[in-house]
């Protein structure tokens, strides 16, 4: 059978010069009686089943007037024709058959189709020819990746939970075959990591994919669609032509322990999801974020009079207008929330279900930093206009402040001056602490409660053997990367923004945005070194580090009493360049464990507060609440200091002791270039600051001493995609999007590199060689040629060695000279015996050659005699014999 350019199939006999039949599977007769013109058939296979039915499979051949570029696989089974449309162009396909060795037929059971951007396997034994569910990730680029998050050493129960809900969703998708994946070659390596790794990818279509990245594997676990939070018409109508999707994921923040996920959308909307194992039906709470302006009206809380505090308790029920109550929002991105409060709710699939939708009215307000803390029950995000704090428990806005308000009101310039450039090398001036003290002084009840909590936590210590001034043992380092770049594409102009942090007056504060956020139990006031306060640390694009003190109600009043926040009254520290990351160490230089609320089923209301080593998030903010664990002795930097805060900007890094706010270590990482990504990660028993520089270098520094560990040329910053997706995680691992369809994982841990080959799987299954068949007695008796045993005896490793059954002389103890003589005689005897063995081997070879010649001559004589005998009786009749 042959396929042709006009979409025809011709069947030939092996003897005839013309085809026996010609058919056009997809051509229909026109009104004129002519056949439609069809596209070429590029690939063809012809199989025969056990029942004798013919199965013809080919790609292409559709009519040319069919709208669009339709890619397809056609299956002709007898008289039935089935067209399977493909999402991408077909590169090649192969039919899998169960073919017995002695049969003249094939039994096809599946088709493996290689597409331009995917791999599809079709089940031929099920009605309708459904596709097998692909267990391997071939569709990372199904929608362009917009952001990444990497979690190494995450809770071990996350992967089974995500995989379970992912399977539930896939079973409900029509079209998948119920049979298992038919390709079963190869095997996983027995050695693997003892910890779990998860990768989150946000996509332009609003989906968030969860991947299992443990060891050398990459398997899709679960897919969340943010577009399902909104009505379909609202999502389709949001934004004009050419604008990005209104539901594209821009920022991700996951609390792995409480299984809460926050997703920021382009307009500034933020979605909060809560994980549930089963399908539910409920309403989605919708809140409106107040417009952030320089003249924002404030509600002064009576609990914190005298301090600058904000308390917004307006939930979805207090939003004005019937449309807003039902979750309808106008403006640039008119989105209607599905199942909003007051609409009767909606069905929610198992997995991450929407718990809260915070909508930003007015013009777009891009989110550049996003974090949440399950122990506080708070979520915070920031952008160019300011910072927003939302109470996840009461579903209301706690605070919405512009950046200028964090310095006190811009009009009160005489009360707070901004630090000048000569103050950048150390902590900020005293007025910042004074502002915090005034705010706390008014909130007496909140301060007393925080002080008691801090006292209880002081007894929980994490002590290590290292001293605060001694650098942790430098881990062995190497780099693992498998990709090189030759192109030098120009970076996006939005990424090449000005990175100057100089600010001489408060006029520039209005241009300052939020770049980094971190929740922590910390000491923010020099005047009170014993009071531990829940705090939100804020890093800005101009290098300022500010704080917001948080007053939380008692646990039993958490759902009824509001949360009150107070600004500190100015920057505590000032660095050059935008603030990239902040983290907290105890006085021994170890990462402070953070407290969290454990995930529980909805049927259980019991909440647990635990502490564990932080699971680093790869977003621009640290989504953790860090609790202090001071050692038994005071820090050696300053008497009374109990914490270190590590701050990294685009230019430099600082380690500052708290509460004295003294800079104990500093490091100027770059001068003219800038840092693309920085993160504080744990590596073995140490803590490191890892940086990816605009020069393509990876630079790591020990903590808290900030001593250089490595500085290697790693990856040229050739594309904006690398900068947007580059992230670090614990254990020295990291990743970035090497191409639109490839995730590149790397590590600076030398021990992991050594174990990498043992973690890789095998494409082919290893099998032991079978034993050679035993030789027949008669074959050995009547010849059969040279045997392997003969060659082994003559030339193998065992040749010349005595049999194991022969006794060996072991000399007894003797003097040194006697031992030397014995050794000499033994060596001489060994040489003589080896020589004798060689001579004997030569004799055996000579005898074998003589025997072979004798047999050859005997065979020649026998052949001659037989020939003569044949000639003698050739012409004689039977009666002459």
UniProtKB/TrEMBL annotation:
It is found in: Cell membrane; Cytoplasm. Residues 431-445 have a biased composition (Gly residues). Keywords: Cell membrane, Coiled coil, Cytoplasm, Exocytosis, Membrane, Protein transport, Repeat, Transport, WD repeat. Pfam families: LLGL, Synaptobrevin. GO terms for biological process: exocytosis; Golgi to plasma membrane transport; protein transport. Residues 615-628 have a biased composition (Low complexity). Residues 1-26, 297-325, 411-456, 603-638 are annotated as: Disordered. GO terms for cellular component: plasma membrane; SNARE complex. The keyword Coiled coil applies. Residues 446-456 have a biased composition (Basic residues). Residues 816-876 form the V-SNARE coiled-coil homology domain. The keyword Transmembrane helix does not apply. It is a peripheral membrane protein. Residues 603-614 have a biased composition (Basic and acidic residues). This is Syntaxin-binding protein 5 isoform X4. It comes from Bombyx mandarina (Wild silk moth). The gene is LOC114252836.
């Amino acid at each position: 059978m042959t396929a042709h350019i006009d979409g025809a199939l011709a069947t030939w006999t092996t003897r005839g010069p013309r085809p026996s039949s010609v058919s056009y599977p997809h051509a229909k007769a026109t009104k004129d009686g002519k056949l439609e013109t069809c596209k070429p058939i590029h690939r063809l296979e012809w199989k025969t089943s056990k029942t004798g039915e013919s199965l013809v499979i080919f790609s292409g051949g559709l009519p040319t007037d069919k709208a669009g570029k339709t890619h397809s696989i056609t299956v002709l089974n007898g008289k039935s024709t089935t067209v399977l449309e493909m999402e991408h162009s077909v590169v090649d396909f192969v039919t899998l058959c169960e073919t017995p060795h002695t049969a003249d037929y094939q039994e096809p059971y599946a088709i493996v189709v290689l597409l331009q951007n995917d791999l599809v396997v079709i089940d031929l034994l099920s009605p309708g020819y459904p596709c097998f569910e692909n267990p391997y990730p071939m569709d990372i680029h199904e929608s362009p990746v917009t952001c990444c998050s990497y979690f190494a050493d995450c809770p071990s129960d996350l992967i089974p939970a995500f995989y379970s809900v992912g399977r539930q969703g896939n079973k409900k998708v029509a079209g998948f075959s119920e049979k298992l994946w038919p390709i079963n070659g190869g095997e996983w390596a027995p050695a693997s990591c003892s910890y779990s790794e998860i990768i989150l990818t946000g996509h332009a279509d609003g989906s968030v994919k969860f991947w299992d990245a443990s060891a050398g594997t990459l398997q899709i676990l679960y897919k969340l669609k943010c577009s399902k939070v909104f009505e379909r018409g609202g999502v389709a109508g949001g934004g004009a032509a050419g604008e990005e999707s209104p539901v594209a994921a821009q920022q991700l923040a996951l609390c792995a322990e409480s299984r809460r996920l926050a997703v920021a959308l382009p307009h500034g909307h933020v979605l909060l999801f809560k994980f549930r194992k089963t399908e539910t039906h409920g309403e989605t709470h919708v809140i409106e974020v107040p417009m952030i302006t320089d003249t924002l009206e404030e509600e002064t809380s009576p609990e914190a009079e005298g301090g600058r505090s904000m308390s917004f308790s307006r939930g979805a029920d207090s939003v004005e207008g019937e449309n807003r109550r039902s979750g309808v929002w106008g403006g640039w991105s008119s989105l209607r929330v599905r199942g909003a409060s007051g609409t009767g709710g909606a069905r929610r699939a198992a997995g991450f279900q929407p718990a809260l939708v915070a909508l930003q009215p007015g013009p777009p307000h891009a989110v550049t930093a996003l974090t949440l803390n399950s122990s506080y029950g708070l979520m915070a995000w920031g952008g160019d206009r300011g910072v927003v704090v939302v109470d996840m428990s009461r579903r209301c806005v706690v605070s919405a402040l512009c950046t200028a308000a964090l310095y006190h009101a811009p009009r009160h310039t005489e009360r707070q001056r901004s630090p000048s450039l000569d103050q950048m090398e150390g902590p900020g001036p005293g007025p910042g602490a004074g502002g915090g003290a005034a705010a706390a002084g008014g909130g007496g009840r909140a301060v007393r409660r925080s002080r008691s909590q801090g006292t209880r936590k002081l007894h929980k210590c994490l002590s290590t053997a290292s001293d605060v001034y001694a650098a942790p043992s430098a881990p062995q380092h190497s780099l693992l990367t498998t990709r090189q770049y030759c192109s030098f594409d120009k970076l996006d102009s939005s990424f090449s923004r000005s990175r100057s942090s100089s600010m001489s007056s408060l006029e520039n504060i209005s241009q300052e945005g939020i770049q980094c956020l971190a929740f922590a139990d910390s000491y923010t006031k020099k005047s009170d070194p014993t009071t531990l306060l829940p705090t939100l640390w804020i890093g800005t694009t101009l290098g300022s580090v500010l704080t917001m003190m948080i007053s939380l109600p008692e646990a039993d009043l958490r759902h009824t009493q509001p949360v009150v926040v107070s600004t500190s009254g100015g920057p505590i520290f000032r660095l050059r360049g935008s603030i990239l990351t902040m983290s907290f160490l105890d006085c021994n230089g170890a990462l402070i464990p953070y407290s969290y609320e454990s995930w529980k089923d909805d049927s259980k209301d019991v909440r647990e507060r635990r502490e564990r080593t932080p699971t680093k998030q790869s977003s621009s903010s640290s989504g953790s609440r860090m609790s202090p664990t001071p050692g038994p002795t005071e820090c050696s930097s300053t008497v009374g200091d109990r914490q270190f805060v590590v701050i990294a900007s685009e230019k430099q890094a600082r380690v500052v002791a708290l509460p004295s706010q003294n800079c104990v270590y500093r490091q100027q990482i770059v001068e003219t270039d800038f840092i693309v990504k920085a993160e504080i990660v744990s590596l073995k028993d140490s803590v490191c600051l890892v940086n990816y520089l605009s020069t393509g270098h990876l630079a790591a520094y020990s903590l808290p001493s900030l001593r250089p560990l490595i500085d290697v040329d790693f990856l040229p910053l050739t594309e904006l995609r690398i900068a947007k997706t580059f992230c670090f995680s614990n254990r020295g691992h990291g990743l970035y999007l090497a191409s639109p369809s490839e995730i590149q994982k790397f590590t600076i841990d030398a021990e992991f590199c050594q174990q990498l080959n043992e973690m890789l799987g095998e494409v082919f299954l290893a099998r032991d060689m079978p034993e050679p068949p035993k030789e027949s007695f008669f074959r050995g008796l009547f010849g059969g040629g040279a045997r392997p045993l003969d060659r082994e005896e003559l030339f193998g490793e065992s040749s010349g060695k005595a049999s194991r059954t022969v006794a060996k002389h072991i000399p007894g103890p003797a003097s040194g000279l006697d031992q030397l003589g014995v050794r000499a005689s033994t060596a001489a005897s060994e040489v003589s015996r080896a020589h004798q063995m060689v001579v004997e081997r030569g004799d055996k070879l000579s005898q074998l050659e003589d025997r072979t010649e004798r047999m050859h001559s005997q065979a020649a004589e026998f052949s001659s005699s037989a020939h003569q005998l044949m000639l003698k009786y050739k012409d004689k009749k039977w009666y002459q014999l």
